[in-house]
Specification:
By secondary structure, the chain is mainly α. It has a domain of 51 residues. Helix content is 48%, strand content 0%. The longest helix has 20 residues.
Length: 85
């Protein structure tokens, strides 16, 4: 505790980003054949790799948030619906 300001002092873990681990994910995806599935897998790997080159981390947390929020942006929502229709 800082006696002058009466605020708690940060511990070494507070505010410091936790190291990221690399995990595998498995999920179901509609496709006509295995080739389409492989193309989707490679596109996702390329997307993550591209952002990694620019120092951006495509994390599970960010992907989950983006998917949960896709319909809050009218432009994004209309384009996704148009694309998948």
């Amino acid at each position: 505790m800082n006696e002058q300001t009466n605020t708690p002092q940060p511990t070494p873990q507070q505010g410091a980003p936790q190291p990221l681990g690399v995990y595998s994910i498995t999920f179901q995806l509609y496709a006509h054949n295995e080739q389409e599935v492989e193309e989707a897998r490679m596109a996702i790997i390329a997307f993550i790799g591209l952002h990694r080159q620019y120092g951006r981390a495509v994390t599970a947390q960010k992907v989950a948030q983006a998917i949960a929020r896709w319909d809050q942006n009218p432009l994004v929502k209309s384009q996704i619906i148009k694309y998948f229709t």
